[in-house]
């Protein structure tokens, strides 16, 4: 069975279910009449309804969600400050757990202690997030006899299972988009993701300042917007797949950078970097557009599986915003993949000239490695 929802759907909302049979025989369960009723109430000027209600369709939304996010942002910022520290010149000399442990073990190259601590934080987070997200996908898969949406998604990868409920999910109370019911673990995962990326945005000015600082601001804002929007508008299924695909790549990225800043043999760093490049190409430029982006752009399947009930999904909440958000992410991925290719070319050129290890991040830092080394030597002298 699929996991039990966080809360049962009320009898009033359950009556909005519509069932169609797609040309391939699939039973398609939607709750589109609920959206249409909300639109009608907004158009008639009924008290308590506004355009905002079209983007707050998740039936489990609660003011306590905002409270949880705020407290988690505060907790994550405090934890990061304690274990990783700040990368500003005034704070680089101060104590942090990661820098203390790495310094005691003597496993980090001179002048790279702060960068190691910064990347180690991200490596731990994305590893945790990947395991968490993958376990939720497995839970949502159900069984062969009573499959959940994530199992059906791989059997029919046209995007339909991001929106419709399987028979097992229907027995749990979900009647299809937008009245999809996330489980309690799914809600905590999603709200924690919003909190984490908000903390990253707040912390950005205290990280190592690089030439693509503005691009990172755009990335963080787009990520927060996409995650929050997909949760509030009941697009959390496609959101979960997107987060898992991104974490897969980020795990390899940040562990590779940690290895690069350590004294581990260059061949290990090279292997991890190759795995990262391959995973980036597969996950972000192939699987992500195919499984997640294209189904939100191509509306032809919507008309097919609803037997013409919906001509296209662009007139529904998120029908335009969701593909825009995802397309922004694709554009950023293409930009960063260009940087990765430049890095590969630079490494190959360095190897031809006799270099024995990777030369570092292609992005320029405002504060050079030598500056960090000088500050370390100064501290030793004191």
From TrEMBL:
Domain TLC stretches: 120-349
Keywords attached to this entry: Membrane, Transmembrane, Transmembrane helix
GO biological process: ceramide biosynthetic process
SMART domains: TLC (SM00724)
Coiled-coil zones: none
PROSITE patterns on file: TLC
InterPro entries linked to this entry: Lag1/Lac1-like, TLC-dom
Skewed-composition ranges (Basic and acidic residues): 355-365
GO cellular component: endoplasmic reticulum; membrane
Principal location class: membrane
Places the protein is found: Membrane
Ranges that cross the membrane: 188-206, 213-232, 267-291, 320-341
Region (Disordered): 355-382
PANTHER family: LD18904P, LONGEVITY ASSURANCE FACTOR 1 LAG1
Protein's UniProt name: Longevity-assurance protein (LAG1) domain-containing protein
